[in-house]
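Retro notes (design track)

What went well: tokenization of the new backbones is finally stable.
What didn't: we kept losing track of which sequence belonged to which structure.
Fix going forward: every design gets posted as structure first, then sequence, in one message. First example under the new rule, 611 residues:
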């Protein structure tokens, strides 16, 4: 049975193909169109899934959309009526789009699917899943658990913003919900907007900025914005928000409450903004911990799965893990709306079609999340030649040694190997790599390669068998979704005078043996690397370890700020030539910057909008 899952028309469109319960392929549309968070119908992602799997469009048994537009329309109408006449301008903008396209989404989807095969009766094969059920299915069904509690937190689906589901075998049922307008995701996004970052894109910046501040505004948030019960359920005070019927996240009362206007994205980030970030991060962690503690007590489950955009808050995830309420936690690596496409397909297979589920107790079923396009060595060489690139083709044992040597000498490497990752994290297939021991690597990567704010931290990739030697983590973290601290023996103690520094002044302090991946609070967002899921990346790390006695590499996504992660060799070469990346390794092709035709150099600093 072949099932195609689709998410589209809101943000982060994607497609995923499931065959007899096995996840065969998945990709976000943005990687093909080069438009960050592309919301359009995922034509390119679907084409990839079909081509990669060798499945013809006529062989698709079901196409499943990841939410139910009629329920979402119901929520919009009820919200507009509740807030009328306020919000009429937003109503006037939204209604024509809904009445023309979104409300009759079945017609629109069938029209798009017909372009793949005109002979298929797509209407008979089209299903719709609920938004939070899609999220929950994306987390539970690929997990290594026979049964589990499943917590989904995001902005909003149809009505639900927070939900608890119970998964057992091939069954998954949502048993509790918190509904719009009460949303932890939208609360976090309101502060993202207020601090001057882009909603649905800049939330991870708030998380990265938080350790530079103190939660000085947490009491104001508790007293005015959110009422949290002991079990984690909550309500938001809508007097301070404008997302229900307006065109922005917050209103003037919100700005007055926190003592100033929203930060313009071009303005300097001050200590006040850092304290705001620390405050909303602390409140978010409080809500999530209360929720997970009450879920553990109520369900008596040993396992927890997480999904939804809020599940990408890896700092909070790390605290849930250390809280110890659950023996095992598994988080969908594509936890946002893109992952909804995968969950929709899986829900159709297991819930709609009632197919049996075989659990892989030795690991999950995501295949390391390496589910996207790949290119043969022959194809890579052909494409690079057409671009005019100058390269050597090296054997495996040579390219790994040379690249490890280059990194140890302070060079940055664009690493393009195998199948592209599904989800927002680069996991060693489309990555930019550096030496974690370098005290200047973080600044170099942020300012000269990524063209982004200097405060943003970088993640370590570490050989799985060495994680306990470097981090306070007792398990694998293959998807970079848990934050843990550097072990005390690896930290470098600073003088009391240095410890009096505040905010961004603390950025360049050397805090550990691996300063490039150590955040200012001694934490790191960890990716453990296993030879079972990514042999090539594991081999590179092994070579670097043999050379330096350090089993860690700096790993950041292969792109610049505002650009989707590179998908093709052409994308990789263009990014290489538009930044200060020193070396490019695509398959077995090895490229040095100084050997390239200078006429091919690009300026990538302003090539993409601010993220």
């Amino acid at each position: 049975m072949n099932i195609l899952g689709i998410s589209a028309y809101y943000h982060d469109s994607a497609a995923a193909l499931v065959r007899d319960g096995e996840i065969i392929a998945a990709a976000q549309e943005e990687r093909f169109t080069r438009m960050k968070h592309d919301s359009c119908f995922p034509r390119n992602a679907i084409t990839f899934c079909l081509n990669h799997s060798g499945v013809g469009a006529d062989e698709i048994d079901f196409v499943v959309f990841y939410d139910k537009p009629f329920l979402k329309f119901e929520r919009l109408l009820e919200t507009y009526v509740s807030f009328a006449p306020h919000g009429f301008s937003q109503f006037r903008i939204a209604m024509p789009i809904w009445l023309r396209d979104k409300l009759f989404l079945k017609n629109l989807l069938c029209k798009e699917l017909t372009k793949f095969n005109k002979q298929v009766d797509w209407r008979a094969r089209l299903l719709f899943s609920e938004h939070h059920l899609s999220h929950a299915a994306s987390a539970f069904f690929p997990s290594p658990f026979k049964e589990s509690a499943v917590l989904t937190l995001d902005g909003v689906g149809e009505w639900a913003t927070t939900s608890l589901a119970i998964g057992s075998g091939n069954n998954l049922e949502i048993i509790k919900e918190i509904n719009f307008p009460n949303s932890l995701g939208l609360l976090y996004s309101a502060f993202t907007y207020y601090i001057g970052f882009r909603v649905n894109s800049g939330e991870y910046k708030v998380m990265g900025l938080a350790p530079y501040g103190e939660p000085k505004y947490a009491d104001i948030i508790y007293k005015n914005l959110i009422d949290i019960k002991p079990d984690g359920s909550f309500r938001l005070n809508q007097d301070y928000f404008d997302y229900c019927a307006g065109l922005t996240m917050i209103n003037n009362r919100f700005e007055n409450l926190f003592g100033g206007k929203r930060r313009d994205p071009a303005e300097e980030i001050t200590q006040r903004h850092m304290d705001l970030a620390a405050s909303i991060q602390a409140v978010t962690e409080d809500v999530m911990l209360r929720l997970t503690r009450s879920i553990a007590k109520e369900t008596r489950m040993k396992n927890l799965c997480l999904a939804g955009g809020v599940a990408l808050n890896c700092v909070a995830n790390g605290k849930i893990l250390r809280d110890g309420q659950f023996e095992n936690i598994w988080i969908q690596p594509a936890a946002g709306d893109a992952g909804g496409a995968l969950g929709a397909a899986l829900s159709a297979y297991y819930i709609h079609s009632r197919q049996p589920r075989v659990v892989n107790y030795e690991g999950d079923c995501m295949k390391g999340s390496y589910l996207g396009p790949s290119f043969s060595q022959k194809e890579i060489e052909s494409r690079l030649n057409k671009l005019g690139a100058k390269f050597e083709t090296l054997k495996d044992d040579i390219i790994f040694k040379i690249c490890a040597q280059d990194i140890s000498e302070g060079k940055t490497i664009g690493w393009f190997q195998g199948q592209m990752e599904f989800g927002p994290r680069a996991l060693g297939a489309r990555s930019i790599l550096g030496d974690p021991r370098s005290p200047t690597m973080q600044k170099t990567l942020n300012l000269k390669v990524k063209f982004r704010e200097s405060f943003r931290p970088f993640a370590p990739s570490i050989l799985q068998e060495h994680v306990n030697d470097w981090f306070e983590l007792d398990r694998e973290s293959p998807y970079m979704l848990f934050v843990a601290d550097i072990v005390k023996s690896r930290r470098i103690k600073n003088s009391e005078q240095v410890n009096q520094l505040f905010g961004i002044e603390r950025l360049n302090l050397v805090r550990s043996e691996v300063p490039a991946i150590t955040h200012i609070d001694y934490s790191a967002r960890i990716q453990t690397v296993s030879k079972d899921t990514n042999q090539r990346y594991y081999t590179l790390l092994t070579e670097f370890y043999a050379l330096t006695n350090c089993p860690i590499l700096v790993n950041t996504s292969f792109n610049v700020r505002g650009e989707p992660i590179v998908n093709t060799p052409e994308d990789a070469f263009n990014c290489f030539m538009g930044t200060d990346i020193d070396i490019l390794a695509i398959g077995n092709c090895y490229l040095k910057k100084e050997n390239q035709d200078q006429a091919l150099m690009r300026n990538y600093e302003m090539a993409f909008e601010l993220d």
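Added context from the reviewer: The chain is about 35% helix and 20% strand.
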